[in-house]
Amino acid sequence: MSPCPPGCCCPRPGFLVLCESLNLRSLPRSVPLSTSALSVARNQLCNVDHLLRPFSSLQELSLSHNLLARFPRGLPPSLESLLLQENRITYITTGALRQLVNLTHLDLEDNHIRAIQPGALQGLIRLQVLTLKGNNLTGLPRNLPPSLTHLDLSANCISTLDLPSLSPLVNLQVLKINSNCLRSVPDRAFDGLPRLRSVDLTDNLWVCECDILYLYRWLLSARLKVATDLVCTEPVHLAHRPLLNLSLTAICPRVLTPNERTPRSDLNSALGRKLATAKPTERSSFDNMEDLGNMPILKLSTDAVFSKDVPETRALLEHFTLQTLTYEECLFLNRTQSVSPSHLKTVTYLPDEEQKHRDNSSGRYPQSSTTSAGETQSLLSTDRDAPWLTAAPRQFTQQNSAAVISLLTVLCVLVTLLVLAVLLVLRLVLRRQMRVAPLDAGSAG
Question: How is the chain split among helix, strand and coil, in percent rounded to 5?
Answer without folding.
Answer: 35, 10, 55
